[in-house]
Design goal:
Length: 88
């Protein structure tokens, strides 16, 4: 694709969450495919950070309510121990 065609595509682009590229204003001033690619890279990094933040937030909540994987493993072990005591 030619640079102008890529610019038009980038202006129309919506990410998975429905948002446009972070640096959409810079698209018009780009004069190379490398510059356009860098805009996509910055947006990709931003999306990755947002997803990581969301996952960390969810894990903090999971720990708060006692449902972290460690807590669940301990609960299973305790249930197994209780079952063993009942069977003895």
């Amino acid at each position: 694709m030619k640079i102008e065609e890529i610019k038009n595509e980038l202006k129309e682009f919506k990410d998975f969450f429905g948002g446009e590229l972070l640096d959409i204003e810079s698209v018009a001033s780009c004069s190379s495919k490398i510059e356009l690619s860098e805009i996509i890279d910055r947006h990709s990094n931003h999306i990755e950070m947002m997803c990581n933040d969301a996952l960390h937030s969810l894990e903090r909540f999971r720990r708060k309510v006692g449902l972290s994987l460690i807590d669940i493993d301990l609960a299973i072990l305790k249930e197994d121990e209780m079952e063993d005591l009942r069977n003895d």
